[in-house]
Specification:
By secondary structure, the chain is mainly beta.
Length: 717
């Protein structure tokens, strides 16, 4: 006969709280406040904080709430090493339905638990936490999920509590009582606004530099000592079902206890325009206080508006997807006109205000050239005060309105295709960089509309010296191979090293490399090791591997493309305003209807392959005389769009970077915005002379250097 343990306990959050007036963060200092019962096993747990009653808030249980039961001191059981007979390891006990909505609850174990001897137990919470040999480990994430405005039903998912002194007598199956010691702090932020009452509240976060508000936590259940690893200086909640901001809304989150007294503390409120892609991010500074275990801090922010932002160099409005990150300026690539000889310079005035995650941005002070030219030392751009080359400490300062000025040489200078400008903080650290891409007078960028799929593309590869139209009309079929190459998800093109024009700056990706590191070193191409080492995943970073940097989704690696996949423009998208990195469905259409127009490149083995496939030849191609192979996509009426063989850099060695081995005549790989289900690889379009068919592939790991063909952004961002 099975026997079950019935455990009962009170569930009151005896957390003293105070209402925060004038946006001040304060905490009471009295001791002894605690949650006396908590428990859950998954993100479905529905513990919530009820209305304040005197100086306490009730903790209300709901159907599905679960605690965990372990024998005191026992090691965590695994499939290979199960718990010894008569002992328990992280066993689940679920709340009885009759206890739902109450501050007290009765729990029943999922499995039949028996003991013939008296035993000391440890009751732990939440169920995602793991108890083993006196240690309780869990994670308090930076971004927590709140179901809707004013709902605290999620807070139990991120708390951490235990009772290390629970007695179970031999054969006992009911009447086990316990009181959990709560180790986490709770925060409620009440936000109101008139200016943005027609927007949806989507997220609220707290940030204080060096505070350690979230992270991986481990508690010694004997001493109560908490250890935090990988701490984050911010924490908050995203609302999964946002609603209009017509009334004040409440956001709840769990945090690691800490003392913020005397520190700068910011509450960031993020809102979304329901009628468009506009995101508004408002950081508000509040006074620091204490976040104490088992206590609830209440922070009230009234009248949130654009004037709440204290920095002139911060823009709260962004139309691209921030992907929970940060940016400077409205785009990453800017077109600049190169005029005929003798007509002088064209001028760009570029907004460089910060937006997004305030924990990652600083005031821009200087700006300088990272690379005035992409190839062969033919500068396309220069800066005020006749700055024509890289400076380790730039001399130009950002304008008072937080813009910078960039100028182009005219055609008398025999300019190349693009250059890169960076902004710096007061200590000359690079904050962000921008690609400045030329077009010639009379060769203004145009759109190419495909007859199928609603596809509209730019008429040239990103970084190209001119369009295919100009190549046909003015250059006798020459598509100059000075394209830009990108690692997947990065906004910056490869730049030639300052030591010479034969190699890129390059290194094997160091251990611990983050997104912040590569943004601060836009000129560095991070190679990878194919097997083993610090970067066997083939990425240009080793600490983070986000899949949404270019606004696509994760698609299946089998069965071809999901042609319903569409992306959106992000703050890391390298395409100019009005365009974005293409969807995989673009490649599917090119594969369906494109025609290979190749040429005899001089190799006997290749000659044989091509001669055996006469359909690969087309001597009527406008690029044939210049030995430029292309995929020709028929637009109708005898017109074509062209995808040139643009080369590729495979990036799997620290000692490579020379342009010649890519040999743009032999093949090409183009990036899409989507990752595959093998998330260290991205969807790409590949073709080369050595195969009889071209294909889409998923083997393009992120550290490889491919080209980009920009697609029209329907939101015109």
């Amino acid at each position: 006969m099975k026997r079950y343990i019935f455990a009962a306990g009170a569930a009151v959050l005896a957390a003293a709280s105070c209402s925060i007036d004038e946006n001040k963060l304060e905490q009471p200092f009295e001791s002894g406040a605690r949650i006396t019962l908590s428990g859950q096993t998954s993100i479905d747990t529905k513990v919530s904080i009820g209305e304040k009653d005197g100086e306490t808030y009730p903790l209300l249980w709901a159907t599905g709430d679960v605690i965990r039961i372990s024998t005191k001191g026992a090691a965590a059981a695994t499939d290979e090493t199960p718990a010894p007979a008569g002992t328990f390891s992280n066993e689940a006990a679920e709340l009885f339905g009759e206890s739902a909505g109450s501050t007290s609850g009765v729990f029943q174990t999922t499995n039949a638990l028996n003991t013939d001897e008296a035993m000391d137990l440890v009751i732990t919470y939440p169920g995602t936490a793991v108890y083993s040999e006196g240690k309780l480990t869990s994670s308090i994430p930076v971004f927590q999920t709140q179901r809707s405005a004013n709902s605290s039903i999620h807070v139990g998912n991120y708390a951490l509590a235990y009772d290390n002194d629970v007695k179970l007598e031999a054969g006992q199956t009911e009447g086990v009582t316990f009181s959990l010691e709560q180790k986490t702090a709770f925060v409620k932020v009440i936000v109101s606004t008139s200016e943005y009452r027609a927007y949806n509240l989507t997220e609220v976060t707290m940030y204080s530099e060096g505070a350690g508000l979230a992270g991986n936590v481990s508690v010694d259940t004997e001493t109560g000592e908490m250890t935090v690893t990988d701490p984050s200086d911010k924490v908050g909640a995203k609302i999964s079902r946002p609603s209009l901001f017509s009334d004040a809304q409440e956001v709840y989150f769990t945090a690691i206890p800490c003392d913020l007294t005397g520190k700068d503390v910011y509450i960031t409120v993020r809102m979304q325009n329901p009628n468009g892609p506009e995101t508004v991010t408002i950081p508000v500074k509040v006074d620091g206080g204490r976040l104490e275990a088992s206590k609830l801090s209440v922070i009230e922010l009234t009248g949130i508006s654009s004037s709440s932002v204290e920095w002139e160099w911060y823009d709260p409005v962004e139309t691209r997807d921030l992907v929970d990150k940060w940016a400077y300026g409205r785009q990453n690539t800017f077109f600049i006109k190169v005029k005929p000889s003798g007509e002088g310079a064209d001028h760009l005035n570029i907004d460089v205000k910060a937006r997004g995650d305030i924990s990652k941005v600083k005031k821009p002070k200087y700006y300088g050239l990272i690379s005035p030219s992409d190839y062969n030392g033919r500068p396309v751009i220069y800066l005020p005060n006749d700055v024509t080359a890289y400076q380790s400490k730039p001399t130009n300062t950002v304008n008072a309105d937080y813009t910078i000025d960039v100028y182009s040489n005219d055609q008398s200078k025999n300019v190349s295709s693009w250059g890169v400008v960076a902004i710096y903080d007061e200590d000359y650290n690079i904050l962000w960089s921008f690609m400045i891409w030329k077009y010639l007078t009379g060769d203004e960028p145009q759109d190419v509309a495909y007859p199928n799929g609603g596809i509209v593309l730019m008429d040239r590869i990103l970084g190209a010296k001119w369009s295919y139209r100009y190549a046909i009309e003015k250059k006798d079929g020459e598509l100059d191979p000075t394209y830009a190459y990108f690692q997947w998800g990065r906004k910056d093109p490869f730049m030639w090293s300052n030591s010479g024009q034969e190699h890129f700056n390059k290194q094997l990706t160091p251990a611990g490399t983050t997104l912040s590191d590569v943004i601060a070193n836009p000129y560095m191409f991070n190679a990878y090791v194919n097997a083993g080492g610090v970067n066997s995943l083939g990425d240009w970073q080793t600490e983070e591997h986000p899949t949404d940097l270019w606004g696509g989704s994760v698609v299946s690696a089998e069965g071809g493309y999901d042609e319903s996949v569409t992306g959106h423009k992000t703050v890391f998208d390298p395409c100019p305003a009005g365009y974005r990195v293409p969807d995989p469905k673009v490649f599917a259409e090119v594969r369906r209807a494109g025609i290979r127009w190749e040429y005899d490149n001089g190799s006997s083995a290749q000659d044989t392959q091509l001669q055996e496939n006469p359909d690969l030849f087309n001597e009527d191609s406008p690029f044939y005389s210049k030995s430029q192979a292309v995929i020709a996509y028929p637009l109708g009426n005898g017109e074509y769009d062209y995808w040139p063989y643009a080369g590729v850099h495979y990036g799997d060695k620290a000692n490579w970077g020379n342009r010649t081995p890519s040999n743009e005549n032999y093949g090409a790989v183009y990036w899409s915005n989507c990752m595959s289900t093998n998330t260290n690889s991205a969807v790409s379009l590949e073709y080369c002379y050595s195969s009889s068919t071209y294909n889409a592939r998923y083997a393009g790991v992120r550290a490889q250097g491919f080209t980009v063909r920009c697609q029209k952004d329907t939101e015109n961002r």
